[in-house]
Amino acid sequence: MSSPLTKPDIDYDEAVLSAVNAAIIAVQRDTGYGSIEITIHDGRVTQIERREKVRFEQSKPKRV
Known about the structure:
The protein is α+β, with helices and mostly antiparallel strands.
């Protein structure tokens, strides 16, 4: 049997939450198309990663 998931007891500092929120907003603003991944360890945000795809349109050859 698996044990139920428990949430760690962590006191969140308003300054930390504000900094994480600002970082997420900045990454979101700078990303046109893609994904944002937020990594959490022991209930704390440890990393914010951005993946963005850049696609190029290929011009079709002209028919003569």
